[in-house]
Specification:
Blueprint (H helix, E strand, L loop, with lengths): L17 H4 L3 E2 L1 E6 L5 E6 L2 E6 L2 E9 L7 H9 L1 E6 L5 H7 L9 H4 L4 E2 L8 E2 L4 E12 L8 E14 L4 E2 L2 E2 L1 H4 L2 E3 L5 E3 L17
Antiparallel strand pairs: 1-13, 2-3, 2-6, 4-5, 5-10, 6-9, 7-8, 9-10, 11-12, 13-14
Amino acid sequence: MFFEPMNYGNAGLEHNPLKAIVAPRPIGWISSCGVDGSINLAPYSFFNAVSEDPAIVMFSAQAFGPEHQKDTLRNVTETGVFTVNIVGASQVQAMNISSGDYPYGENEFNAAKLSMIPGTTVNVPHVGNVPAALECMLLQTIALPANDRGENYTAVLGTVTGIFVDDSVVVDGKISYALLAPVARMGYRDYANINDFFELGRPIIKFEDP
């Protein structure tokens, strides 16, 4: 079958398969603060690292105009900072609780019964007991093209200013994926535990002198 992105129904599919095809995706569990001091915590599956040096990450959030702007996007544009919490196996339920549509100003840390650990380089807390967290300074926001209903996403790029790694997931100077136990987003309502790892070296290409 072949179809244009939003014409999946004509191909006999019940749901848009895009996020099921581009999977698994890491989850950016974003904590942020507003200028009024309110704190927000929400997961985003359109998230990834885009550069190592300088270290830059990105996530994208729905932005349907100021009156429907996501709390995270509002906070980040107001204060210019955010923190990415990495979701391990033991944080899945709390992450799901924090994804609810809470009113602006309600602290999802409290709703999910999570502790707040003060940031070191940014004035944003990270989630207690997460295996890792990335403190970020806003680099740029990019308004992505709107759909035919006038709805769009905003891509948020942040420069990583500090990295927290729980000592318990480090073995012989490397992060152990088995201990990190990262949880990934699939399509629909599906998630995945990433627990099958293998190492593969890059090929060495030798060129002979002409």
